[in-house]
Design a protein that fits this description.
The structure is a homodimer. Chain A has about 250 residues and is an alpha/beta fold. Chain A folds into 2 domains: about 130 residues, Rossmann fold, CATH 3.40.50; about 110 residues, OB fold (Dihydrolipoamide Acetyltransferase, E2P) (Beta Barrel). Helix content of chain A is about 35%, strand content about 30%. In chain A, the strands form 4 sheets. Chain A has a 5-stranded parallel beta sheet, with helices on both faces. A 5-stranded antiparallel beta sheet of chain A has the order 10-9-8-12-11. In chain A, strands 13-14-15 form a 3-stranded antiparallel beta sheet, with helices on one face. In chain A, helix 3 packs parallel to helix 4. Chain A is elongated and about 70 Å long. The first copy, chain A, starts with a helix and ends in a 7-residue tail after the last helix. Chains A and B meet through helix 5 and strand 5 of A and helix 5 of B. The first copy, chain A, binds a DNA duplex (30 and 30 nucleotides) through loops.
DNA sequence: GAAAAACCATAGAATTTCTATGGTTTATAT
DNA sequence: ATATAAACCATAGAAATTCTATGGTTTTTC
């Protein structure tokens, strides 16, 4: 079910627009760009070019302007089934409702009336996200020992500390859990909001409230605990800063 | 994703019809009855009753006649979202195409024009089956020993023979594979086309070409091999006969 | 650049999974 | 119905896997 495109590009949906009208095509592109989460992989202006484009790029979504030669487009959609198993999501675009019936018959996901209406578009895209929930990054980690399976919600982990061969998990509720594996092994297993900042520490970005470059310390939201970071992992600290800055207004000097 | 109804009733889809018109409702019911795989769990004649019915029975599919008070039905569909997570498949029915646009906007799966057209209906139902493929009964069996995982396509298994604590699998290609488990354990693990016919045998119905009640023997298609069945498993032999007869013309005396 | 700590390979301990045995129950077939 | 045969079950020891401690090596810290 999960599309290759979605996997390698993270959470983004890829799409293709098939539209004779360059203006509406561009409008749509701009909107989707603003919206985020969508990436244009190709465009086409007629059904033949469109078929080729879809087969070449396997987009997650195909937008079709049905105003000119609708029947050819519907034919194209039927032909697509000959070649594809993972079928793209189809969204029709038209200045009238005349093609709505054929659209539903051809398994279209939605139908937009021109001129574009941001409200309608937003509704469709939200419905799409609801229906195709992207792998919300394995948010649970399993520590197993023999027949014991310990499932941790990674959102509950504040940070990890290396202790020779084993690793201690420090949880939000104050508990600590030990696992007999090196910190390095968890570096690759944990979701990307976990970053290594020190020889002995991996921390959950979601709990960092402060980065002090002078003292080389990160402060956590919970209990104002302080953890060191070091030169080796400077790049990770920078990306941490970038993520944190994204959602805040920086008070500069 | 798998609906509770679907699980306990095997492969059948449950449905509800909401239709003021008793005639079309009955027509639809009859068609679905003939088609098989569909089971009516309730009916309603208006949007209020319909809402209640859907929430009570959680049908897999809801058929809606939109000819009278379409807007009320669309409102009902919107309200449904407040209460349900596993949303039913919606199929609109109408004498005209006027509601097709609203239907697609409300996430309808399909839209049928009255009078009913068997071809259209069949197409929709096949599309539905394609999209919601029922658990096609784990057709592959895994024999594991330590870190060795041996996957068998159950379609390749002719029969199983007990050998004290272990079980021998006799395959289509002539090979035999041993597993250290009793025949009984496989009785429950294998798909339902496997039946126990003897203290020492389980066989794949798909390879049975003959049942001889006089000699208490089953003959297999491959190599004309003969396996005994016994009194204890007489009921299973009868259901085997029933299945085989279903797809053949019996020459009676 | 010295000290500390993570990392890695390995070997023995802990645990689980598998197979053989004998006794018990159930099924077969005359 | 009954003697015979074979599946079934529990169990115990064997085999395989998984885990943890040790010491040596490499990397990191300050």
């Amino acid at each position: 079910m999960t599309n290759f495109n979605l996997v390698i590009l993270g959470m983004e949906y890829t799409y293709t627009i098939i539209d004779q009208n360059a203006t509406s095509s561009l409008q749509l592109q701009h909107y989707l760009e603003d919206y985020g989460d969508f990436q244009c992989v190709a465009q086409a202006t007629d059904h033949e070019d469109g078929l080729n484009t879809i087969l070449k790029h396997h987009p997650d979504i195909v937008f079709l302007n049905l105003d000119h030669g609708a029947s050819l487009y519907f034919q194209m959609v039927k032909e697509l089934h000959l070649y594809m198993t993972e079928f793209p999501i189809l969204i029709g675009i038209s200045s009238g409702k005349d093609h709505a019936y054929d659209a539903i018959k051809n398994d279209f996901f939605d139908y937009w009336l021109l001129p574009f209406n941001e409200f309608d578009m937003r509704k469709t895209l939200l419905r799409l996200k609801k229906q195709l929930p992207k792998e919300h990054a394995g948010t649970t980690l399993c520590l197993k020992s023999y027949k014991d399976f310990h499932y941790l919600d990674t959102d509950e982990i504040l940070y990890l500390k290396a202790d020779n061969n084993s690793t201690d998990f420090f949880m939000k509720d104050g508990s600590t859990i030990s696992a007999f594996k090196t910190l390095k092994t968890f570096e690759s297993q944990l979701p990307k909001n976990f970053i290594r900042v020190h020889q002995s520490y991996i921390l959950n970005m979601n709990y960092v409230s402060r980065i002090n470059y002078g003292k080389s310390l990160c402060t956590l939201k919970t209990g104002k605990m302080q953890l060191p970071f070091s030169k080796t992992y400077r790049e990770n600290i920078d990306s941490l800063k970038k993520v944190l800055s994204k959602n805040s207004i920086t008070t500069l000097n």
